[in-house]
Design brief:
Elements (H helix, E strand, L loop, with lengths): L1 H25 L7 H27 L10 E2 L6 H13 L7 E5 L4 E5 L11 E6 H6 L2 H13 L9 H19 L4 H40 L1 H26 L7 E2 L4 H4 L1 H7 L2 H8 L16 H9 L23 H12 L8 E2 L2 H35 L22 H9 L2 H9 L4 H4 L3 H26 L4 E3 L7 E3 L2 H14 L7 H14 L1
Length: 525
């Protein structure tokens, strides 16, 4: 009844305005009030246009849009995956999907092409995230699949499927009204938004019971332990995937480069294989769960897990160490990852160069080191130029004057920078020429040194990385279990931090750093 009321509200409003316009034209029209009646007619016409737009949105609310960022797979392409999907649909009493798409998110879902605000169902489509398949075992995937089909099954209420479809359609319609371009459109939209809130509040308990009922079906299909483990794993996988995208997949962004074909998404498998469960869980530790939507149909995850664990024990354990990854259900996963990459990367990415992971790590480490070291090298170059001008009798540049341009060929090398430190120029001249926020420019003495010291440290470390990479003493390390970067010689790994601390102290001492450099030169010789 509520769904029908949402649909019929527009018809009632249009009928009321039609009656008002008819009365104005046939009964109340007078020459004296023609301007007022004309204004009323204009307003009602504009309101009718807004209502008709909303009613058109009703008709489109259940349509399935194209999937530009997914790879469609048929039962002939991936029979083992489709077998799992169909088994999950059967156990919930639902029909299997007509289409199956593999997408790049840690997510799974079923969408239906419904009509009349979800009162009638239609074509069904399922989405499965490749990162989800990479991170779940087959039993845990079975639990996720059964849960998704359980949304549309009549599990604890005869109208559960209608409620789920209706909520999706109502939310779509409300979004259309929020995109209105006129005040009248907003005014009509406010009526529908208010009605939608009432419907969502009323149906929320039904939707939440449907979620819990779907969990129960998943536990019966895949096992109690596997279902609870899947719920625990999903937020960990989501955090790990976000970390992978930021730390690894986007590594070549500043360089205009990409990992090997298929590795933009496929590299996530390597991160999962290299990290234990504890290391993966650490990526999500301390993160706040996303704030739930006011009308979210999902109960808290902890509550869902607790209810699942209250079920009687069955003879199926999680067995995650012995179970294969769900990705093994795919035939030729490398080809699937490459196809997904072709569908998700922007067109401009075609022109980007492809690099191996090791080459990518090395190129990014060198680029980062150049970025860290450049402010320090510029400051030293300007300090040395100013000192040379004083020695020649010329007036040095006054403080606050625009900095003179320094060509790359004029930037000092590592030894020149260390010589400048030994001459006592670091805290007298160089530090003042390193860019800093306006507020920090007012600092003096120890406060100023403590503020700028990390920038000097990073600049010097960047120059060392450049030196070691250029002489072949640093090797790239993709470090799937840690953080990608350079592997330095043992002596540098052991003593570099202390040597850098000595070089940037209040009284700089470059001897430890020079000793490490001398040892490297001896090894090279």
């Amino acid at each position: 009844m509520l769904l029908a009321g949402f649909y019929l509200m527009g018809v009632v409003l249009l009928a009321a305005m039609a009656v008002l316009d008819w009365l104005l034209v046939t009964r109340l029209f007078t020459a004296r009030a023609a301007w007022f009646e004309g204004a009323v007619l204009t307003v009602t016409v504009l309101l009718a246009v807004a209502i008709l737009r909303g009613m058109f949105a009703f008709l489109r609310a259940g349509r399935l849009s194209p999937v530009p960022h997914g790879v469609a797979v048929t039962p002939q392409d991936q029979p083992e995956l489709w077998e799992q999907v169909c088994a999950a649909a059967e156990v919930t009493g639902e029909r299997p999907p007509d289409e199956l798409y593999l997408v790049p998110e840690v997510n799974a879902g079923v969408a239906e092409q419904s009509r009349l605000l979800g009162l009638l169902s239609g074509r069904r489509r399922m989405f499965l995230g490749l990162p989800l398949l990479a991170g779940l075992t087959v039993p845990r995937l079975r639990a996720v699949l059964a849960h998704e089909f359980g949304h549309y099954g009549n599990l604890d209420t005869r109208l559960g499927g209608v409620t789920m479809r209706g909520r999706e359609a109502v939310l779509h319609t409300v979004e259309v009204f929020r995109e209105g371009s006129t005040q009248l459109h907003y005014a009509i939209g406010a009526l529908y938004i208010g009605y939608a809130r009432m419907f969502l509040r009323t149906s929320q308990s039904v939707a939440r019971h449907q979620e819990l009922a779907a969990d129960q079906v998943a536990a019966r299909h895949a096992g109690r332990d596997a279902t609870a483990a899947a719920l625990r794993t999903l937020p960990v996988l989501d955090a790990a995937h976000t970390h992978y995208l930021e730390m690894y997949a986007a590594m070549g962004g500043p360089l205009g480069a990409l990992p090997p074909v298929g590795e933009v998404h496929g590299g996530f498998r390597r991160l999962l294989a290299a990290r234990t469960g504890e290391r993966l869980a650490a990526l999500s530790a301390g993160q706040r769960p996303p704030r739930p939507h006011r009308y979210d149909s999902h109960p808290p995850t902890a509550e869902r897990i607790a209810l699942i664990e209250e079920l009687p024990a069955d003879d199926r354990t999680d067995g995650s160490a012995d179970e294969p990854a769900a990705l093994t259900l795919l035939h030729d996963p490398d080809r699937v990852f490459a196809a997904l990459e072709a569908r998700t990367l922007p067109h401009e990415a075609v022109r980007l160069r492809r690099m191996s992971w090791d080459d990518l790590v090395m190129a990014r480490a060198v680029a980062d080191a150049e970025g860290w070291s450049r402010p320090l090298r510029l400051a030293v170059a300007r300090t040395l130029r100013s000192a040379a001008q004083v020695a020649d009798g010329a007036a040095p540049a006054r403080r606050g004057a625009p900095a003179e341009k320094v060509e790359d060929a004029e930037l000092p090398g590592l030894e020149e920078v260390l010589d400048a430190f030994d001459r006592g120029l670091l805290w007298m001249e160089v530090a003042d020429r390193i860019p800093k926020p306006t507020q920090a420019a007012r600092l003096t003495g120890a406060s100023a040194r403590n503020f700028i010291r990390p920038k000097v440290y990073d600049g010097l470390a960047g120059m060392i990385h450049l030196r070691l990479a250029g002489t072949g003493h640093a090797a790239p390390d993709i470090a799937w279990s840690g953080q990608p970067g350079l592997t330095l010689p043992e002596a540098w790994e052991k003593d570099m931090d202390d040597a850098l601390d000595a070089a940037v102290a209040d009284t700089p001492d470059t001897a430890p750093l020079r000793a490490l450099l001398a040892g490297t030169h001896r090894v090279s010789a």
